[in-house]
Specification:
Length: about 350
């Protein structure tokens, strides 16, 4: 089934209306819009097709439609209109940054609060030192008594080790194979690239020692994270309660109790290598606790080898255009504020 321009227009209209009202959207309401030159029957047919294609969902038999995670993804990628900040909004953000961010040591805490106020959503801010440590070499040394010593040499010349119990079927030859596999696949990698796919490849190559791979990967990842100086702040969690999606007490309680630094710690890794603003819709989130929410993030430069990240967490029915515009403006303003002033260029020497 082809996703025609008419279908895209209907989908964009439904997302826009659902963002404003938080109520399922019916064909009659769409047909009454001035810029929608289609009959109610035509719109119903397009909505049925969009539902079959997975872009819309129908909460109840007699209700209208709401966007699915796939619908929001298409909206963010192709359909949403640019949101232009008003002069009052830009002035308000500028004033907030200039007046409230006086001390760099509390930068991230203040940024999170300002972003939460500007977007009316829970916000996170992260400061991380660029260029973290990686593994230079793995050594696995048989220690006797059914155990071995894992030795990890880091790129900053620090060495850490851990005593690990051996499974019955693993001996010296299996440890040599595992050591070779680790050194071939896990050295010189940032911790953000320790993905489930990497672990699966390691386990497939490790033979009888495959059961040791998760233990080694977890220990190595924790070691590398401890080498980096990363600070994270979460602010405005209670703002979720203002949204209809969280009027249910049990749902709100589950979300508020999991919206902490541990749950959000995977988000900075998502931004590694990313440019501009990144949007994760529902199931695209790594953390299981965030599967029913959307996350919008962007980066900015702090200077002195530090990079900042700001983002918001909220219902999939958030106003993506407005949120991305405000986060981008924050990021640009913060980069300018902490960037080094340009040095005046010297006049060119004139030939005599």
């Amino acid at each position: 089934m082809e996703l025609t321009e008419r279908k895209k227009k209907v989908l964009r209209t439904i997302v826009d209306m659902y963002i404003r009202t938080a109520e399922p959207v019916g064909s009659k309401a769409i047909a009454e819009l001035q810029d929608m030159n289609y009959s109610s029957a035509t719109i119903r047919s397009e909505m049925a097709d969009l539902t079959a294609m997975g872009y819309l969902e129908q909460p109840h038999t007699s209700a209208g439609r709401v966007p699915s995670a796939a619908g929001y993804r298409l909206y963010v990628d192709e359909l949403m209109a640019d949101y232009r900040l008003s002069l009052d909004e830009t002035a308000s953000i500028n004033t907030a940054i200039e007046e409230k961010m006086e001390k760099v040591d509390k930068l991230m805490e203040k940024v999170a609060k300002l972003v939460s106020q500007a977007t009316d959503l829970p916000a996170i801010s992260v400061a991380a030192r660029a260029g973290g440590a990686t593994v230079k070499r793995f050594d696995l040394i048989l220690a006797g008594s059914g155990s071995f010593i894992l030795v990890v040499m880091l790129s900053n010349d620090q060495v850490v080790n851990k005593l690990i119990k051996l499974p019955l079927q693993v001996g010296e030859n299996e440890l040599k194979l595992l050591s070779a596999v680790l050194n071939a696949a896990m050295t010189d990698l940032p911790v953000e690239e320790f993905t489930p796919a990497l672990m699966e490849r390691l386990m497939n190559s490790a033979g009888a020692a495959a059961s040791l791979v998760p233990v080694i990967v977890d220990f190595t990842a924790e070691t590398l994270r401890n080498q980096s100086s990363t600070s994270m702040t979460v602010a405005g969690q209670a703002r979720l309660l203002q949204h209809p999606e969280y009027h249910d007490i049990n749902k709100a309680h589950r979300m508020l109790t999991t919206l902490d630094e541990d749950t959000l710690s995977t988000l900075p890794a998502v931004m590694q290598g990313a440019n501009g603003t990144k949007v994760l819709v529902g199931p695209e989130n790594v953390a299981e606790e965030l599967k029913d929410t959307s996350v919008v993030m962007t980066k900015f430069d702090i200077g002195d080898g530090l990079q900042g990240m700001i983002g918001v967490v909220g219902p999939t029915r958030m106003d993506y255009a407005k949120v991305t515009a405000r986060l981008s403006y924050f990021a640009e303003s913060l980069s300018k504020m902490f960037g080094k002033p340009e040095q005046p260029s010297l006049p060119e020497a004139k030939e005599k």
